[in-house]
Design brief:
Structural class: alpha/beta
Distance between the termini: 62 Å
Largest sheet: 8 strands, mixed
Number of domains: 2
CATH superfamily of the largest domain: Vaccinia Virus protein VP39
Order of helices and strands: HHHEHEHHEEHEEEEEHEEE
Bound molecules: S-adenosylmethionine
CATH architecture of the largest domain: 3-Layer(aba) Sandwich
Helix content: 25-40%
CATH topology of the largest domain: Rossmann fold
Strand order of the largest sheet: 3-2-1-4-5-12-10-11
Radius of gyration: 19 Å
Number of strands: 12
Number of helices: 8
CATH class of the largest domain: Alpha Beta
Shape: globular
Length: 276
């Protein structure tokens, strides 16, 4: 007699990941808005570093016929998954404008692009200034004049805590769990994991594991400038009071604006935009 599979056994970890931590439409909207504001021009070629399943590259090419994307990732299996589940289902017209390269972002040579982005902190895998500078210099080399490099970074007073945070995903049958299990203040090395828990009580433990350095905004800014970028801007999420009178906290608006000074928070996600 065959045993009925649990929800965890039936799940696809890339789908769970995309539903939990990626919002391709709002991220591409933000990238486009900032590029248009800074350059008063329309970008066309987008490079997604550490592209994984190429969700952003696909979304980029949905913007119109002139939009092309290049995704770069070391893992061929993940690229294949992205081609099958994101790129091809978007339709032939879009798919033919997405190129996926199985290469190392430290050394990849691509045609010059208007935008390079590295989201979800993947670049924090480079734990020394010299490796980070090598990566940033390689990105700068492949940017067009006026080109912009977009990164994100997490921080806040709680980022060095050993914690497990749960977030039920709206309209889905699972909860996303972010575990920060190690932090070494000597070298700022952190180890984090993503787990998923399902409505039937089953779990997908260690679906993804990350070994990063917890970089700070001033460090990243300095290394970008050392690598030759001409200017670095920081974008922060706006806040507003909640409708709920019992909620003493401010709620994020989802809209990001450029800032030069900000109050520290328990946890934050900032966007960094470096101008070639
Ligand atoms: C956290 S996932 C990022 C997925 C997606 N970009 C996102 O925003 O959520 C990290 C990806 O980086 C890739 N990766 C790690 N080191 C790399 C390198 N040196 N060059 C290219 N890809 C790399 C891994 O294969 C993995 O798919």
């Amino acid at each position: 007699m065959s045993k009925k599979k649990t929800l965890a056994e039936k799940a696809d970890k890339h789908i769970l990941y995309q539903k939990s931590v990626q919002t391709a439409d709002t991220e591409i909207e933000f990238v486009l808005q900032v590029y248009r504001e800074i350059n008063a021009a329309e970008p066309e070629i987008f490079r997604e570093d550490f592209c994984g399943t190429a969700l952003l590259s696909t979304e980029w090419c949905r913007q119109g016929n002139d939009y092309r994307a290049i995704g770069v990732d070391l893992c061929q299996d993940t690229l294949d998954w992205g081609m099958k589940h994101n790129v091809k289902p978007a339709g032939k017209a879009i798919a033919q404008r997405v190129t996926l390269l199985n290469e190392n972002v430290l050394s990849v040579q691509t045609e010059k692009t208007d935008i390079v982005c590295a989201f979800n902190f993947s670049y924090c895998i480079f734990e020394t200034r010299s490796l980070m500078r090598q990566y940033f210099a390689n990105v700068r080399h492949s940017l067009e004049e006026g080109g912009l490099f977009f990164l994100d970074l997490l921080g806040g007073t709680a980022t060095t805590d050993i914690v497990e945070e749960e977030r039920p995903i709206e309209d889905e049958n699972f909860t996303y769990i972010w575990e920060q299990e190690y932090y070494n203040p000597i070298n700022a090395h952190i180890e984090c994991k993503i787990h998923f828990e399902f409505e039937d009580g089953s779990r997908l433990d260690n679906a993804f594991a990350y070994s990063w350095r917890l970089w700070s905004l001033p460090e990243i800014r300095e290394i970008l400038l050392e690598a030759g970028f001409s200017n670095v801007r920081i974008y922060w999420e706006g806040f507003e009071e909640d409708d709920d009178p019992d909620n003493e906290y401010l709620t994020g608006t989802g809209e990001y604006g450029e800032v030069t000074e900000i109050d520290q928070q328990e946890s934050w996600l900032a966007y960094i935009v470096a101008e070639r």
